[in-house]
Write a structure and sequence with these properties.
One of its GO terms (molecular function) is oxidoreductase activity. Helix content is 39%, strand content 12%. By secondary structure, it is α/β, with parallel strands linked by helices. It has a domain at 24-263: Aldolase class I (TIM Barrel), CATH 3.20.20.70. The protein has a ten-stranded mixed β-sheet. Helix 6 (158-170) links the parallel strand 4 and strand 5 (175-181). Helix 2 (56-65) packs parallel to helix 3 and helix 8 (223-239) crosses helix 15 (362-385). The protein is globular, with a radius of gyration of 21 Å. It starts with a helix and ends with a helix.
Length: 386
């Protein structure tokens, strides 16, 4: 019996193509500006040195294009994710938020801003409070582990990040964190998590460094390094329940499901990502701004010309979407981890392999397989000790 089966997985047995793409997303990813004030060594975004801002007309078209039936459950997240969103300025951001006010006041949407925190001010905090914005901050750990986050002069951004976090804390604005882990930091899970917990962070998502877009840093951990990191993260989480680690929680929630629920297929989120000019790509935010001789610009449509739902509905006619479906079915037929990850991310397949029909990626190994295997390692060790 494999390690995966011992943790309660049932490897997929059917190669039959199943309905796979949802028409209603859980979130819309919006690019208020292409500009970022930092030049992080592992950033995937092209043209992040250019200031190209979303207009209120694009924001209005997005808001008007949200169907009355959305969301069918919960709230629809409107995720403002740059460049660095705060470089657009408070006044311009207010103009972008205004078209969504009817939906926000009706409880149908929630604004989320993912920021590097270096530009947070009292004025920004006023905006966060006024529009009930959920704030996500990108920081990788203590100063020596945040060295990849530098400005365009190559100067460390850590002190400015911490100053922004302190301002959020002073205004009692809660925040979550996304931390990137590379090879150099993969053996330091407890230090990273201790640091983030001390900041008052209640929830952290760990992104193992990935080969995407323009990232030439090449700091992707090996599966063994990642497995060690996740083992330590599970043990840390067990001892420190006050801060949740996204990947740990996702696996434990999955394993808590009834076997029939684990085996059930899940519709893949189309993840509409809308650029500053209204261009919309599907399946992966990292495809926005990417260019390919085979797939061109990945743009499925523009919200200034077509309603958002019409853009999503034409997904089946896009070559990269069709190929991603093939890749998912290949994963379903061959991979014992599929029931948990459901095929993972389209962007990783493309940027690692140049095609969407590929199956296993480094992201699969470090952020899915290694997480499962780490928990199996802990269970095995404890069983042996008994």
């Amino acid at each position: 019996m494999s390690a995966v089966q011992q943790l309660g997985y049932d490897p997929p047995r059917s190669e039959t193509a199943l309905p796979w793409l949802a028409t209603e997303p859980a979130a819309l990813i919006l690019q208020p500006t292409s500009l970022c004030n930092l030049d992080c060594s592992y950033c995937y975004l092209p043209a992040r040195k250019l200031k190209r801002d979303m207009s209120p007309a694009v924001a209005q078209a997005i808001a008007d294009g949200i169907p009355d039936a959305w969301p069918s459950d919960g709230v629809l997240e409107i995720v403002w994710h740059g460049g660095e969103p705060l470089t657009i300025g408070v006044r311009a951001m207010r103009e972008l938020l205004a078209p969504f006010e009817r939906l926000r006041r009706a409880g149908r949407i929630l604004h989320v801003i993912q920021t590097n925190a270096t530009l947070i001010s009292d004025e920004w905090c006023d905006l966060f409070d006024e529009y009930d914005v959920s704030v996500g901050v990108s920081v990788d750990g203590p100063p020596e582990m945040t060295g990849n986050r530098v400005d365009w002069r190559g100067q460390p951004a850590f002190d400015r990040i911490v100053a922004g976090l302190s301002m959020l804390q002073g205004r009692d604005i809660h925040f979550t964190v996304i931390a990137v882990v590379d090879q150099a930091n993969a053996g330091r899970a407890s230090e990273i998590l201790d640091f983030l917990a001390a900041l008052g962070c209640p929830y952290v998502g760990i992104n193992m460094e990935e080969k995407e877009g323009t990232n030439l840093h090449h700091g992707t951990p090996t599966i063994d390094q990642a497995r060690h990191f996740w083992r330590d993260a599970f043990l840390w989480s067990e001892a420190n329940p006050g801060m949740k680690v996204r990947e740990v929680e996702h696996l434990l929630e999955y394993l808590a499901l009834a076997p029939s629920a684990r085996a059930a297929g899940v519709l893949h989120d189309p993840i509409p990502t809308i650029g500053w000019n209204g261009d919309t790509v599907l399946l992966s935010p990292e495809l926005l701004g990417a260019r390919s001789e085979r797939y061109h610009d990945f743009v499925a449509g523009n919200v200034l010309a077509d309603p958002l739902l019409a853009i999503i509905n034409r997904a089946a006619g896009l070559s990269y979407v069709q190929e991603f479906r093939v890749g998912i079915e290949r994963c379903r037929a061959a991979c014992e981890f599929f029931a948990h990850c459901q095929g993972a991310h389209a962007g990783n397949r493309y940027f690692e392999h140049g095609t969407f029909v590929a199956t296993e990626t480094e992201h699969c190994r470090t952020s899915v397989q290694a997480v499962v295997l780490a928990l199996h390692d802990i269970n095995s060790e404890r069983s042996t000790a008994e």
